[in-house]
Design brief:
Layout: H1 5-11, H2 25-33, H3 47-57, E1 64-66, E2 73-75, E3 93-99, H4 104-116, E4 119-121, E5 124-126, E6 130-134, H5 140-151, E7 157-161, H6 165-172, E8 181-185, H7 190-200, E9 204-207, H8 210-222, E10 228-231, H9 237-252, E11 263-266, H10 274-286, E12 291-294, H11 299-312, E13 325-329, E14 338-342, H12 345-358, E15 362-367, H13 374-379, H14 385-394, E16 405-408, H15 416-423, E17 428-431, H16 439-447
């Protein structure tokens, strides 16, 4: 059972050193009990206390890793019910369903979707992460062959789905090194699935009613199986969403450990309408699936789902930002024009897209303005001449250029004189377009195209 704040406080060093970021050890203990702080933040806690506090400091929803290396993905480990309390942590993993009854061409098409449908948006890579392989035939050898084949076609993580522990055991034997999620344990097969999970060191997904799930997780955790995912799908979408909310609230609000695990949901089994399936999957991302399995991840579907996911899992209290520095577009050289703007990610995304569309080689300086847009940063004193000039001079861009010309956004045209004065007489400041959409025309004219 989780410890109370006072019980945790008694195990802390009580130095009130503030190095954890809290004013007192008691305040830190209260946050630790609420799952809103990490024990590692206290530099002076004893090893004995760490052992006793391990349960209290663990996230109320356990983090589960599927896959290995750069292609692994973690689900769960969430701390809050609503994203305005604190940002959600591990974005929902999207998986594409592949069954052993499919033809070779169908399988190849699905894997091509998984490997190739990747998008960049405001500096983030958006894609699906998992291949969900389901044994529909009931033939262990056929399913094993599918797993072996797909494992060689993608480096992304795998989910192995079957009601039969024997089928799963055969399949795991050819891909255990990829740390797949084995899926399908029920009350009747929990012991067999637990044995496979323990032997192969892979996570396991269990399914059943809420009461069944509680019984199974208690049995598995008692047996030393910690990496568990819950499949609480019901016959109706409404009841599935209801179960998702019950599990999330029980884990976060009640600290009920038997339900403190991420969930998996199968949008692919809820409808035959592919467009409606994407809509259902989006709803499951919102409430609160750790993994969503879909039948297709064609470009429109994967873009819609990943952008929705990005919006849900972006910290609403912090703006999305780009790293400060020099960015290249269309292979610029020493004679290419130089532009400057702020590090608000949306500003960068729009401006960079227009520079690329112009096909004119160009340099773009991104200045750290704490994620503010051009006008907001200017009014806040972040994007002003006496801050911009030192950044330009220290950026190293002078070593890349054969000229000393720089273009500022049209919305801050009033900065041009002061900015040039701060830069020095060898520099020339030009005023660019007010609207990003006019950048291609402006650059082409500058290049004489």
């Amino acid at each position: 059972m989780a410890l109370t704040g006072i019980q945790i406080f008694k195990l802390l060093p009580k130095t009130n050193c503030k190095e954890c970021g809290e004013p007192t050890c008691l305040a830190f203990a209260m946050k630790l009990a609420a799952g809103k702080a990490e024990l590692a933040s206290c530099p002076y806690v004893s090893d004995e206390a760490k052992e006793q506090l391990s349960e209290a400091s663990a996230p109320p929803i356990r983090g589960v890793v599927i896959g290995t290396g750069d292609n692994s993905i973690k689900v769960g480990e969430e701390l809050v019910l609503y994203r305005h309390e604190k940002t959600f942590v591990n974005p929902t993993a999207i998986a594409i369903l592949i069954e052993d009854s499919m033809s070779d061409d169908e399988i190849k098409g699905k894997i091509d979707q998984l490997n190739n449908n990747t998008y960049e948006r405001v500096g983030l890579i958006l894609k699906a992460h998992l291949a969900a392989l389901r044994c529909k035939s009931g033939d262990a050898a056929k399913f094993k062959a599918l797993v072996e084949k797909v494992s060689g076609m993608t480096s992304d993580g795998l989910i192995l789905i079957s009601d039969s522990a024997d089928v799963i055991k055969e399949a795991v034997s050819v891909c255990a090194d990829k740390k797949p999620l084995i899926c399908g344990a029920t009350k009747d097969t929990a012991d067999a699935f637990a044995a496979i999970a323990k032997e192969s060191k892979v996570p396991v997904a269990i399914k059943g009613s809420i009461d069944d799930v509680i019984e199974i997780t208690q049995k598995m955790t008692a047996a030393g199986i910690k990496d568990i995912v819950i499949d609480a799908d019901e016959a109706s979408y409404k009841d599935t969403i209801k179960n998702q909310i019950i599990i999330r609230r029980a884990a976060l609000k009640k600290k009920f450990r038997p339900l403190g695990f991420p969930t998996i949901s199968f949008a692919c089994d809820m409808t035959d309408d592919k467009l409606f399936e994407t809509t259902l999957a989006a709803g499951l991302i919102n409430k609160y699936a750790g993994i969503v399995v879909v039948s297709e991840i064609d470009p429109p579907s994967v873009l819609a789902l990943t952008v929705n996911r990005m919006n849900i899992y972006t910290d609403p209290q912090r703006p999305m930002v780009m790293d400060q520095g020099v960015y290249e577009f269309n292979n610029p050289d020493a004679n290419s024009p130089l532009l400057i703007t702020t590090n608000f990610a949306l500003t960068y995304f729009i401006v960079s897209a227009e520079i690329e569309a112009s096909r004119v080689p160009a340099w773009l300086l991104i200045m750290d303005t704490e994620g503010m847009s051009v006008l907001t940063a200017w009014s806040a004193g972040k994007f002003v001449a006496d801050a911009m000039a030192p950044f330009v001079l220290k950026s190293g861009i002078s070593d890349k250029l054969g000229h000393k010309n720089i273009i500022i956004p049209g919305y801050v045209a009033q900065l041009s004189g002061e900015f040039q004065e701060e830069l020095g007489s060898e520099w020339e400041v030009a005023v660019g377009p007010r609207e990003a959409g006019d950048i291609p025309k402006y650059l082409r004219k500058l290049a004489g195209i």
